[in-house]
Specification:
By secondary structure, the chain is mainly alpha-helical. The protein is built from seven helices and two strands. It has a two-stranded parallel ribbon.
Length: 159
């Protein structure tokens, strides 16, 4: 990376990728690389040996969750081939260690265990197995925005 292309927030990006013991808030404008940063953080958690099933990545929309999952899978697949994505070079300037490579290889086989969803979807995963304890209808589901709007209009008309 040349001096001209060094990002002014490089230390903050490095910390977001590597400081796994801290909860961080990442805020930045559209197109600044937040999704890549979050995907990179998850990939590096996996490289650190955190089991896939113990990681939860939550976003606000289904589209964002889908994009985040694709990015995570892409990073893990590339890392499993020892191909370091540019977005992760700041955290892996010398590539993966043998231990990280082994952890990524294991994670690559278990990516289906990763929870990458919306806040609504995550909450549903938590309460759905225990509907009685949660005080909800066992058949309750999250409806899409269009169906929610129709249901709302029906309730308003009935009222």
């Amino acid at each position: 990376m040349s001096k001209a292309s060094v990002l002014p927030d490089l230390p903050a990006r490095r910390r977001a990728l590597l400081d796994h013991g801290t909860t961080l808030l990442v805020e930045a404008g559209a197109g600044s690389g937040k999704t890549a940063l979050m995907a990179g953080r998850v990939a590096l958690l996996l490289a650190a040996g955190i089991p896939t099933r113990e990681i939860v990545a939550i976003t606000f929309t289904e589209a964002a969750a889908s994009e985040l999952r694709e990015r995570i899978e892409g990073f893990v697949n590339r890392l499993a081939r020892a191909d370091i994505p540019d977005e992760l070079r700041v955290a892996l300037p010398d590539g993966l260690t043998a231990k990280q490579s082994a952890a990524i290889a294991a994670a690559d086989e278990t990516l289906d265990e990763l929870t990458c969803t919306t806040i609504h979807g995550f909450c549903q995963q938590l309460v759905k197995p225990y509907p009685v304890e949660a005080g909800i209808d066992p058949g309750a589901t999250i409806i899409d925005p269009e169906a929610a709007d129709l249901a709302y209009q029906d309730l308003v008309q009935a009222w």
